[in-house]
Fold this sequence. Notes:
Layout: H1 18-21, E1 33-35, H2 46-52, E2 63-67, H3 70-80, E3 84-86, H4 87-90, E4 93-94, E5 98-99, E6 111-114, H5 122-130, E7 137-141, H6 155-162, E8 167-169, H7 181-190, E9 198-200, E10 203-204, E11 208-212, H8 216-235, E12 243-247, H9 256-267, E13 275-278, E14 281-284, E15 288-291, E16 305-312, E17 317-322, E18 325-330, E19 337-339, E20 342-344, E21 353-360, H10 370-377, E22 380-388, H11 390-398, H12 409-414
Parallel strand pairs: 1-7, 1-8, 2-3, 2-6, 6-7, 11-22, 12-20, 12-21, 21-22
Antiparallel strand pairs: 4-5, 9-10, 13-14, 15-16, 15-19, 16-17, 17-18
Amino acid sequence: MTATPGGSSPPARTTARSHALATPALPPHRCPSLTSRPQGPLTAKAPPSNHRTTPATPAGHAYDLAAPPGRAARRLTEATGGEAKTIHRLLEFKPGEGFGRNENNPIDADLIVIDEASMLDLILAYNLLKAIDSASHLLLVGDVDQLPSVGAGDVLRDLIASGVAAVIRLEDIFRQAAGSLIIRNAHRINQGLMPETGSGAGEPASDFYLFIKEDPAEVADLLVDVVARRTPVKFGLDPFDDIQVLAPMYSGQAGVTRLNQLLQETLNPPGRKPERRLGGRTFRVGDKVMQTVNNYDKSVYNGDIGRVTDIDVIKQTLTVSIDGAPVVYDFLEADELIHAYAVSVHKSQGSEYPCVVMPVVVQHYMMLQRNLLYTAITRARKLVILVGTRRAIQIAVRTNPVAQRHTALDWRLKQ
C-alpha cells in the first residue's frame, strides 16, 4: 500500500500484510493521513495501531501518541503499549495560561500520531500544528464518515480534499469479522442504503437486529426490556459493562434523559442503597455514570464511564470506580457527572462498546443523519440493536449534511 496524494484510492484492495508496508510511505510527507473513506469504517482499527509506533522506533527516534478525547487516548495506549495523551496534555495546556507547547517551544518528538482526527476542530488543530517542529512528522488517523468535530471546522476532511497530504486508506476488516453485518451495514449506510437485518439466503441476523415499534413511549419500554432482560439472556452480556444505549437526542420519550430514568429504575432501583440528589439528579450506589469534562487532577476525562461505589453523607463525597480505580468527588463536584445508562451519540465518539442499543424514532428527525447513525453502529464491537421504525432509519440514511461546513481550509491549503 502506498501513500496516495489528493485522496485518490489505491489501485487494489490492501491486505493485512500491507499495513506493515504502509510506514515507509510516511517519511517523504510531513503530514500523511490514515483514513478509510470512501470504503467504509476504519476497518483496520486494531492492527494498524501497533504499526503506528514502528516508523520511529527502529532508529531510536522519539514519538508521541495523542487523541482529542481522553477515552480515545486510553484506547490508543492499550492498542500500542505506548503512552498516549490527550492533545491538551500533549500541548501542556493550563487553564488560564493556555498551551505550553507552541512555535517557540515545540513538541520534542520526531513523529506525532493523532488518533480520532475527525474530532479535531480548527482551533485545536491550529494550536497543535503550531507546536510541531518543521523537522517532525505528523500522522493523522481518523474516519471522515463519523460525526464532525463539536467545534468549528472539518479539519480531516478538508486536509484530505486539499491534496497536500499523503492519504492511506485502510480496507481490511479486523475489528469485526469479515462477515459481520455491523461492517456491511456501515458500508451500506455510507452509500445511502438501508441497513440489512439478515445475513442473506433467509438466514437470521447474527450481530445486527431491528425491533419495530412506532410509538416513542413503547420504543422506550421495549428498549429497556432489551437492555435489562433480552440481551443478557440471549447473548450473556452484562447490562452495565457490556451494553451501551446511544440516543440521537436528550429530549423526548425515547431520548437520553427519559431513558436514563427508566433504565435506572429497572437496573438499579431505589431500596437500601445509599443515594443522594445532587444537581437535579439522584445518584445511587451502583449507578452507571459518565465524566463530562477533562479533570487532570483526578486523571479522568470527558467520556469516561464508571460505577458509583460509595456515597458518604458525612464527608460529603461520592466515589466512582473508573477503569477499576476509585475516584472521589466532593458533592460540589458532582456536576461533572451524568447518568450513563444512555448517552448521546456525540458523547460516544472515540469509544467502543461490546453492544450498542439505539432508539430510532421519527420524533428525533432533527438529529437523524447518516453520519450520526454510522457513528452509533460503528461504536459496537459485537452487537447492534436498533429499536424503532424503518422510516426513522430511512430518514437518517437519506440525510447527508456533510457539505454544510464551509471552512475554506482546503482552498487555503492549496494556495
